[in-house]
Here is the input.
Amino acid sequence: MSYVAIADRDHEQHMHDPQTFITKYIWSQDHKVIAIQYSLTAIAVGLVALVLSLVMRLQLGFPDTFSFISPDEYYQAITMHGMIMVIYLLTALLLGGFGNYLIPLMCGARDMVFPFMNMLSYWVYLLSVLVLCASFFVTGGPTGGGWTLYPPQVILPGTPGVGGGIVLMLLSLVLFIVAFTMGGLNYVTTVLQARCRGMTLMRMPLSVWGIFVATILGLLAFPALLVTGIMLLLDSVIGTSFFMPALLSMGEASEYDGGSPILFQHLFWFFGHPEVYIVALPAFGVISDLVATHARKNIFGYRMMVWAILAIGVISFIVWAHHMYVSGMNPYFGFFFATTTLIIAIPTALKVYNWVLTLWRGDIHLTVPMLFVIGFIFTFINGGITGLFLGNVAVDMPLSDTYFVIGHFHMVMGVSPILVIFGAIYHWYPKITGRMLNDRMGRIHFWATLFGTYAIYLPMHYLGILGLPRRYYAMGDTSFIPDSAQAMNAGISIAAFFVAAVQLIFLFNLFWSRTRGAPSGGNPWNATTLEWQTPQTPPVHGNWGPDLPVVYRWAYDYSVPGAKNDFIPQTMAPEDVPTSDDSYDGSEGAHS
Amino acid sequence: MSLLRKISAKPWEHAGELEGLHGAFTPGQSAGRTGLYMFLAVVTSFFLLFMVTYYTRMQFPDWEMLADPKILWANTAVLILASLALQLASNAAKKHEFSRMRNWLLAGGILTLVFIGGQWVAWEQLVASGYYARSNPANAFFYLFTGLHALHLAGGIWFMALLGFRLNQPNRREQVPSSVTLCATYWHYLLLVWLVLFTLLLRT
Here is the structure.
């Protein structure tokens, strides 16, 4: 029997497609539509956060120039920028967006197992975004207590947004967690219960592994944020003293008594550190698939990659206090967390080695997704190495309140996942729309973004070692800060504006290629995984034809010796694989 | 452990059909149960973190214990009965005895509502004796624990009501029994949570 791609099999479709515009695009229960709704909402709110960062850069690069940026507004911009980027953009886009799109397609399912709950998840997420954005319009504006929302400051008079702003922020977070939980239960259950025949856990692509484990982390860690959110809300609204100590505020004793701000920090970071990996693990998974596909080589050390994801997932729950070295903790406590922090670097470094070893002697195609992969590996190594500095208590102490930390976490938590997201969009856009993104625009976007972001964040490490404090609205006259630091700050701001402008090319490309891009065919990258083997591109409701796919092999059969093509789809049975002397040519893409 | 064995497989060594995987296979057969267990893990994390917070906050000098209302004992007994009723409903569901199942579900739902009402009475008694949420963290934690626990039960009742509607729809009626079993699991779990919380509140 010769191999027939699912796309070419002659079957009629008998799916119960949603008929009206409203059930198809608005109240849709289709995981692909929900994924796109999640992604577009996340990108839209991410653009708000990008503009807020430009407001900050205007003030930092050119202090005393812009009268419309007051200290209060500066702090509000900082707070909202941080919270939106970490929660409402990265978490929502990587799990709600990519998780929703990829899990059913890569596992060979028709949809998520609870489609109605999946739809609800998106609409509650949208509500949480709207509640968050509403805080821009209440009296006093959004909260300006810093994205970590540390009490007592965040709910004391004098902090911007102490009335409506902080209440809306906390309500929005509670809604987000409810939305995430509904989505997350879907992702985990779908991976565990709805894989197609032959898809064992160890035949799953690493993207699914990364998203799967990240979702479990999210399900177990977000309750910590929920607990802190509820208790802080009660402290703020009805005046309990869970976290609020007895203190003098503006010369008067407040009614609070005996609460513990440090308790808040422990709870917050018990969520906050797993959150780093909730973002990082899907990115790791996606990178693994991109690097194997575009280097035409099986991923190096697949089992190690899976184990590393699991190990990182477990260890990420016992490193949280490394965010709190300067809180005055017991030195032995700090020593413990410094040790676990260095231990978690081992599986992480192992993954980096495996990506590099996958590239080694691979048939590297320098496509736009591959450029972003290489950019990510560089950036992640940079950010990871400064993480080793900050993971050590003695080194962290002097650096903790400086721009070094800003440089570190933007490299590792900002630029790195964003590069993955870009790479993933260039990679999967043809499957989502049936058209390629424009290559030339993609290359300009990549190089300008890579060099631009390095021009922003590399100098910040230097500023940090110089002692430039973070969180300050303006530096004023400080003897140890030379004038050159201000010149560097101005340069950073210019680079920031450049990078922001370059993203317009990307946005234009997204819309332009939707109708004008070159038709991609079903499998433009000659990839092995299931989402590229769907009968239609873009996949229709129900994803597969009358029969679910059957999986015969792992996800990384690239350049198998003896096989005619340099990839064997997961759905191809061993007896159907064309050998080098067969005449069958399975490649169909125009861009191989 | 089978999970360890599963993730030790070397997927690149063997292509083709795998034994036991290519037979009769219906995807998503026990999706409901898996989803519920995952949700219970989330709820466990939620309440555990609250308890850790409770213990930590207790160490501070301003902590003043409150006298737990006696009605909590009666409430506990009612919740045990509710859980029992759900178990009987689940037993009936397994035998597809629809009318018995409906009666026990109804009994379980009413008992749960009585429990929530009883918790409300406990709140009233505390407020009447001057134990305000603002005046001491011990009081605030009491309201928080009981309130959040009751909220979870209310969610369960909402789900149970949906099942009740489905029982009246002939085409969806057959799906109900398996959901009733999940309902019973959820109730037993919330009973366990309450027993742990109650013990914690009594002892501290």
